[in-house]
Amino acid sequence: MLSKANTNTIVREEDYKKVLQMLRVALPSLAKVDDETLITAVAYARHLGLDPLRKEVHFVPYYNKELNKTIIQPIVSYTEYLKRAERSGKLKGWSCKFRKEGDELVAVVEIKRVDWEIPFVWEVPLSEVKRDTPLWQSHPLFMLKKTAIAQAFRMCFPEETSHLPYEEAEFWEEPSIPEQTQPTKTDVDTDTESDYITEAQRKRFFAIVKKELGYREDAIKEILKERFGIESTAEIPKDKYEEIIDYFRSLSKPIEAEAQS
Question: Do 69 and 47 reside in the same domain of the chain?
Fold first, then answer.
């Protein structure tokens, strides 16, 4: 039986298949994750009061060579740490800035609690946390800021955040799944596949939004998430495809994705 959800309902044994079906439709990347692994991940998320369908936690498929199977790495956005701190009623304010120390770039997070006289200050040098992944290589400042915020709030609000999964910027390796584990036409319901845009449409989307309109990749991701509730371009529904492109065109200029400060 799954743990109690934050909506105070319990997912019974007979509801498992419905939950798994909803997740796989909403998140095509989970198509090849076996039921037992996915059920365990859902139970863990619900125990923490996180709903994967509401994007409060992200399930990253990851191939484990020792187990010879695809497993799930739960991760959260830094905004979940902020939400938990705000719900505590003890967060007075916070900021995140950069400081140069010679050739080193340092993120400095300052958090004020209503029950503390002295602000909490946490510093994170880029060289200590930077990882060799595409996101870190293309957006090191944005990733450094998210990492510093997550670490600072874990230390400043341990009771509210220490049990949460790591922030996506802190994920050690780039998720990888062997080629043979990718979904095929026989593995995945074609009706489910047809709900989302094709690879050709994704390429056209990036050609328009990145090359023609000049949006940065992190800005695209932020707009898709905040405006449409979509985590990646692979999850863009076909019936929303042109609407989303038109929305990007309607903006006066690209919006730079930036962590709150």
Answer: yes
What are 173-183's pLDDT values in tens digits? 544 444 444 44
Between the alpha carbon of residue 193 and those of residues 37, 221, 235, 238, the distances in Å are: 22, 21, 10, 10
User: Based on the domain organization, do 30 and 139 belong to the same domain?
Assistant: no
Burial classification of residue 153, based on how many CB atoms lie within 10 Å of its CB (0-12 exposed, 13-18 middle, 19 or more buried): buried
As given in the structure block, the two tokens for residue 62 are: 């990851």
Q: Measure Cα distances from 194 to 25, 28, 181, 185 in Å.
A: 11, 11, 20, 11
Q: pTM here?
A: 0.59
Same domain, 105 and 128: yes
Tens of pLDDT, residue by residue over 73-97, are: 888 888 899 999 999 999 999 999 9
Q: What are the counts of helices (DSSP H) followed by strands (DSSP E) for the chain?
A: 11, 5
- Condensed to tens digits (0 to 9), the pLDDT of residues 21-31 reads 888 887 777 87
Are 60 and 177 found together in one domain?
yes
CA distance 238 to 103: 46
Distance from C-alpha of 261 to C-alpha of 248, rounded to nearest angstrom: 25
